[in-house]
From TrEMBL:
TM region positions: 6-24, 31-50, 62-82, 102-126, 132-152, 164-187, 193-211, 280-303, 309-330, 342-360, 372-393
PANTHER family found in the cross-reference section: NA(+)_H(+) ANTIPORTER YJBQ-RELATED, NAPA-TYPE SODIUM/HYDROGEN ANTIPORTER
Biological processes annotated in GO: potassium ion transport; proton transmembrane transport
Domain spans labelled RCK C-terminal: 534-615
GO-annotated cellular components: membrane
Subcellular locations according to the entry: Membrane
InterPro entries found in the cross-reference section: Cation/H_exchanger_TM (IPR006153), Na+/solute_symporter_sf (IPR038770), NAD(P)-bd_dom_sf (IPR036291), RCK_C (IPR006037), RCK_C_sf (IPR036721), RCK_N (IPR003148)
Residue ranges the record marks as coiled coil: none
Major place of residence: membrane
Cited Gene3D superfamilies: 1.20.1530.20, NAD(P)-binding Rossmann-like Domain (3.40.50.720), Regulator of K+ conductance, C-terminal domain (3.30.70.1450)
Protein name as annotated: Transporter (CPA2 family)
GO molecular function, one term: monoatomic cation transmembrane transporter activity
Amino acid sequence: MEQHISVLSLLVVVTTAFLTPIILHRFKLNFIPVVVAEIIMGLIIGKSGFDIVHQDAWLSTLSTLGFIFLMFLSGLEIDFTAFSGSKKRDVLANGKKEPNTFVAATTIFAGIFIFSLILSYLFVLAGFIDNAFLMTLIISTISLGVVVPTLKEAHLMKTVIGQIILLVAVIADLVTMILLAVFVSIYEAGHGNTWLLLILFGAGIVLYFIGKKFKSRTFIETLSTGTVQIGTRAVFTLIIVLVGLSETVGAENILGAFLAGVLVSLLSPNQELVHKLDSFGYGFLIPIFFVMVGVNLDVWSLFSEKKLLLLIPLLLIGLLLSKLVPVYLLKIWYDTKTVISSGFLLTSTLSLVIAAATIGERMEVITPQMSGTLILVAVITSIFTPMVFKKLFPLEAAISKKVSVAFLGANQVTLSLSQELKSGLYYPVLYHTKMEKSDKQIANSLFDIVEITDYSIDSISKTNVFQSEIVVISTGDENLNASLSIEAKEKGVSRVIARIESIELEQNLREQNIEVFSSFMSTKTLLRALIESPTVINILTNQETGLYEIKMLNTHFDGMHLRQFPFTGDVIFVRIFRGKDSIVPHGDTELQMDDRLIVTGSKEYVVELKRELEFCETC
């Protein structure tokens, strides 16, 4: 009989998780994050509603695994390129110089943490909670799961203000997770000393270097396909190893999962693997966890205590003040609406509050009713703060930046191409060694060229080359091109394109994710195509209706059928590349994240489509 009840409860929870996004879509409730809707649905079928689901071994295990995988994906979401060297700051539309994103974000988070500490002691003095440390973590945490999609939808990921908001959330995620582990080791009896956490981080460092060593091996790539899927197996092994080690040293299992996500993020996994992990997590385990959060939450017991009812608005006000006051530093550079809306978005909090509340309840630092109140407040912030942000944030500030392209080496190809790119979505800059006076006058009259002393790393580092999103290296020396391209990749440049004529060099660079072009191969390929497919070449070389590649990075269109695509214009979808698959598009074809779309149409409409689909990528 117990087995029957277990299966029935699991069936109800899984069915609820399946129906939730359908209901949101059907009733156009897209302003509610799916994870929040899952908690609300859990409330309906759980203790606060019909009470048709009961906790058992199956649900407990799957819910715990969902929580662990959620923390793993939270670590995976962290983009460490945000911590890389600062680029040259441009001038804002109001005439002020852009702030340094890292300095601004670090200062704001320091302010958030100090303000949270002060508010926590006030809550302790008021008798709402006994532990100021735990309350500080709860107030200072920020939900990356809410911040990232909101910034993407607003096309702000490539703007300075978007990067500051993102970096504040990333720092908050890292710091509060580490401090939560410290909190457990200090306050929970039977857990190890705080210094034992160093063993966990030491193991993480060792595993990172092992992963880095084996990642680029040829046999790994071979084993990543078919039924082996070695990359996915490696990730799950890493999670289990670090979760097990985390519990062994007396820390929470979620810290091990979070650390596993951070390590995978540092190893720069390919987007296909990330998509698989997201699909598995958000498609199965994580929805079960969030539904069970709602199932176990007894809202009516919260309403029965006047003290907890009073805490809900006070905590909401505290969360808002802890973010709005420090964020007001941005008033130096931005208008009031931008600053206030940024503060509201940073108030959103969910996963780590649930983690802290769950741990606090288990350790008996807080009551189950207090834990439920904290989770309820987190749910409320996740609903209304993104809505306020979208309403307040100035639309003109959301204009997407142009993609910066640095050309190293001025020649007939790069000079001509830089001129063509200027009128589109790109901001090209040419860098070349010092020229003769006569050549300089001719070049500067037609092109914008930045002179450098030589092509040494020291000279190039004094420019903005390594801060560009695309670097094209086309000097006359292919060995120099190869060494500079490797250096650019190590400096964190997302796309590096090098001119290489040697087959041996080409193979070596491609293994390091460096794109390569060759004058000989380009000419030969073009001539063969002219002989075999002259019409195709005409399409490719036509300035008005050529073929263009667009990467689908806007979550708003994820899962949308082409026949429902709202974009107007003369753009036609020719091909869709999804991972290693090539898809011929038709009306029922669904767009998916990271699809590479081959389209044709007039340039103005293609540019508009690129802005809509491609300019949401995390920087």
